[in-house]
Amino acid sequence: MPAVRYILCWILLTVCLCELASAQGLMIRNYNVKDGLANATVYTAVQDKEGFIWFATPTGVSKFDGKRFRNYAKKDGLTDNDVVRLSADSKGRVWFSTLNGLPSFYFNYEIHSGANDSSLRIDSHGQYMQYMFEDYAGFIWFLNTDSRIIRYSGMRTEYKQGRTDLFYFLRNDTIFKPLQNYFNLGTLKDINNPAIKIFLSSPYPADDDVFIGRIRKNPIVILKNAIYTYNNKEATCFFNGPDWGINDEISNVCLDNDNLWIGTPRALYYLKDFFKGARHITKLLDNHYITSILKDRDGNIWITTFGDGVYNIPYKNFYFNYLDNTNGLFSHSIFSICKDRKTGILLVGQNAGVLNTIDSNNNIRRFNLDTTSGRNSILSILPYKDNEILIGADNGLFTFNTLQQRVSVLRPIKNMKDMDVGPDGSIRAVSKDQVIGENYSVEVPDVQITSVASVSDSSYYVGTGSGLFYGKDGSAKVVIPGTEVELHQPVKDLKYIDGYLWIGTADQGLYVLKNNRVVKHIGSADKLVSDICQQLYYDGVGRLYVSTNKGVSVIDVHTQTLIRNITSNDGLMSDDTRGVYYQHGVLYIATSNGLSYFNDKNMPVDTVPPPVYLSHIRYGDSTFLPAKKITLLYQRKASFEVEFGAIAYDLPDLVEYQYNFSSDTSSGWITTMSNIVPFPDLQPDTYELQIRARKYKSEWSQPVAITVTILPRWYQEWWARGIVILLALLLVAFILRYIFLRFKDGEKRKTEYNRRIAELEAKALTNQMNPHFIFNSLNSVQHLIMEKEEKQALNFLADFATLMRQMLNNSRKSYISLDEEIAFLTRYIELEKIRFANVFTYNFALQDALKDYTIYIPPMIIQPIVENAIKHGLAPKNGSGHLEVKLMLKGDMLYCSVDDDGIGWDRANELKSGRLVKHESTALSVIRERLQIIKSFNGNVGKLEIIDKFKSGFGNKEGTLVEILIPIVKML
């Protein structure tokens, strides 16, 4: 809040007729340029429909909410900076009369003028609007300084009939309602209404209710230094300045309930209860040019001046009376207060031994107590005997005779701290280390005594910096009562009431003692205004007043509960209170800044909540005018801010706010003292902001609600987000597919690589078997040559060469057709028949289904088995033998059996040499290994089984049966 300069204008009332001046003062605040006012010269003031106070100055207008000034000038939309008059109409518009005569008004957070509102365009001819009226249709009428009438209908501004004067509007008071409180005229004679009666003095009493009703209802006109109530039948003077000692011309006037305020170019005058017949006048703001006086809807008085800014008298200050060194007292630092019930004399104790008295006629006198031995502040004043008041000061006890108006020394006491009067009228006083009775004293060593309270004629309590003590007359010492730890708190003051001892402590609030036991504690947690107690006062009718460093707390002694607190926020001159006195409904409170007194039952409490208003709405770098609904386009990392305020002219610094940014108003309120609420980075959505306020002792106001809609950018729309999500999913799918294909391709390459390795290994194993066959074949050729069968040997070689070529071709392939394999086996068996002199016969048995497919099998799988059957089964047999090779399909495998009727597997093994055993084992293991390799890249599991038919249930049949399942590739 701008700094507010407080000044105390304590002006003694001027002598008026035979009446004496009143000793009441008023606390007045001053607002000036340093507080934010547009100019120190203020022409007039007006309050608008919302409650703002507007001030017209030569450099623009100021709008005031009690804490902040908002200034408007030509750059803000005014037609001219020099605004001479203001008016507020029924629609909430504030009209500005400027020197250039162009009309303009403020409405809905904006200044309307001819520049932005075509309905206000008019040629003013340089004449400004002097008076404003509103008719019952809501049209605005102006009378300018050229006596021309201008009407604003809301649609346009136009000149009406020819020139006229102010009396035209005053005569037609049933049509026109004036938008100002008074009119300054040079004459009361209306040439168009010669029948009007003019009364230079009122024929009615000032407190006549009917006459007062006319004054409040009719226009008020000022003629020089007299004030009239005016209608179309008569003009009656109800205030004549010279009769009240006002010889200056009256410039303005204000009716304030039963009070009358009058402004002149030299001073401000306050006539309290004027309309009740009172004859007291108070002169305020001497040597100030008063330009206007305004009473706002709360009862506060606003005084505008020429060159001295604006003065404000809060409404509640009219309920208080103030005394200090500016209006009759010796000092502003008050220590004690008391009033004599018989004579009504008010006694005010101050420092330097000064006692001020104020009688019922407001005569103030000063008495000096003995100060020869240093400081002698008057600490306590108590009723004593008839026509005598007991006074306790730093240097002793004194009495004041209320009839003789004389101070007498009763007893000197050095460093006296407190005193009390017992039920029998006996006096007990305490110094810093002694209890002093009327005929005895008791020393209390090693403690600092602060207070004393009489319990009975013979007993008392003593408060010290170390705690509580109890003593009796005739005893040479005091004792600690009870054992409770609370009794050891530093004591500031004591008060014994109806069997209860009330203890005011230095920092722990109040304790209540009954029979030396603590029965109650009241502290700041119980809303005591402060835990630092300075003085206790009992008014005798059930209320205990606790003076503290933060005000006064009032306690109900019967219920031992807090009634209320009284502080400077309620109207005290200071929170540092030293003493209280109550009599006949008037409460006197002594403070370090003077004496405040007021009617206890009529102390004002403003419980009306302050209205909340919106000032600005900001989003990012943009500022918007307030509105109940506002729609904004989302800005990334932009802050949404609402600036607001509350209209409170009394204690504006104590206004607190609450806001809620959700629909949960039960628990979602956030309290703040700031008038700006920021919400950073709001996401697109619709929000509701509610703001409310309260001031000192009021309830919360009705909340002001704003609906804020943040619209999303196109990329924040659901369809845009859906597209982004879809694209993201497609991208993820593409990446996953790419990774899968890469993995699959890698696996495929790996499988192909493994397959190629397996094929090479299979070919290598095949090639391992070729030398064995070649070796055996060459042995056969050698055998034929040695047997002199050259021709047969040559034929054998020819067939062998063909077989070798076929074998070499097959060894380069992973698979050969079954027909090629059978042709190869046939040629091979024929060669073996030649070699073994045709000792066996053979045949191939093929399943018919084999003819429907082209079957491919690995080469050199069957040949080693056939070779073993011939060489080891049929060749050693006595007599001819037979070999059968059977082929058939079993699923995706080729079943092959090689059946011979030779000597059998076991017999053959017995006849074999070690070399043959080694060779045969190698051949069979190679076949098995090839089947495993084929499985690795084909997936089908081959099988090799050797059966000795004699031992395996074939009857008496001899020979060997070898069965093999060969993986194949089958094609149609």
Distance between the termini: 102 Å
Number of strands: 71
Gross CATH architecture of the domain at 815-971: 2-Layer Sandwich
Structural class: alpha+beta
Q: Whole-number average pLDDT? A: 87
Strand content: 35-45%
If strands are numbered along the chain, what order do they take across the biggest sheet?
1-2-27-26-25
CATH class category of the domain at 815-971: Alpha Beta
Helical residue percent band: 10-25%
CATH homology group of the domain at 815-971: Histidine kinase-like ATPase, C-terminal domain
Q: Globular, elongated, flat, extended or rod-shaped: what is the shape?
A: elongated
Uncertain segments are 1-23, 914-920
Number of helices: 8
Descriptive account of the structure:
There is one protein chain. The chain is of the alpha+beta class and 972 residues long. Among the domains are: 100 residues, Sandwich (Immunoglobulin-like); 157 residues, 2-Layer Sandwich (Heat Shock Protein 90). The strands form 17 sheets. Strands 1-2-27-26-25 form a 5-stranded antiparallel sheet, with no helix packed on it. Strands 14-13-12-11-15 form a 5-stranded antiparallel sheet, with no helix packed on it. β3 and β4 form a beta hairpin. The protein starts with a strand and ends with a strand.
